[in-house]
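Researcher: Please translate sequence to structure tokens.
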Amino acid sequence: MKYYNTNNKTYRVSFRQAVLEGLAPDGGLYMPESYPKFSKDFLTALSPLSFAELAFQIARHFVDDIPSAELEDLCQTVFTFDTPLIELSPKLSVLELFHGPTLAFKDFGARFLAALIQRYTRDSARETLVLVATSGDTGSAVAKGFLGMEGVKVALLYPGGMVSRIQEQQLTTIGGNVTAFEVQGTFDSCQTLVKRAFQDDELQQTFNLSPANSINIARLLPQSFYYFRAFTQFTPAKSNGVHFVVPSGNLGNLTAGLMAARMGLPVRQFVAAVNGNRFFPDYLQSGNAQPRRAVRTCSNAMDVGNPGNFTRILDLFDGERTSIRSTINSIS
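Model: Translation complete:
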């Protein structure tokens, strides 16, 4: 399996390189060159599996440079918590994604990424510097995932005054090999700084740089796993066409769901639920994809004015807004 650059589809790399680089040299994002198309029998066979077992069955189609037994052990080590589906009414259920160590859905991607980077850099003579822009949840999950990892340092960039008190306490008190930097700006300012760092030759020569935001494909891929896990908990009568309502900020969670659908998960429609930061619903309505300054809201983890994964959504649909609108609705 190769991964192509969204800015130049002829530029292709291995999974290992996509994980360690995070971003292509020209700032593009990496996407898999193909997707497995899972049959109905395959999906049915996932039902009795644990989350870790299910994760391995999907991950092995994308990670081809780690021996199968080692990848299976990695999944068992990383995914030690589940995602219960709680029925609120006959037509409404909630997927609980807060059973990880930092109580955020980002734990799935952060722990998987951390394990992969540890595996890929264990023989490197250079120190690895993991850069993270966070609007709250990501930073804590990444910090916990990499805490104490030998040969790795983590730099968290968060927007001052735009994360909750408890999130700031999590970010700034974890210590060890994790350092938090308060940025006078928005999440988008932090994300821009991270992207610029990857264009800095001096930094590149000093460290093995890797981003831990959902712009890294290894953060995104495991988020697709829990869409399959949700499917396995539906009754047969409800599993023929599900609507997923997805809280959306940087659009990584939504993109992961779209990838799951591309693999054959029967999804009738996605609904991107945003707060006052209306980049995506405005795009769906008017075609205007102009980035704007993030607006501060009470749901600060979703305060994003220039979503990094929007590029991937365009790529999945070949830039066809009509096709995107037929698959995704958005509410604010």
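Researcher: Any highlights?
Model: Residues 106-121 form the longest helix (16 residues).
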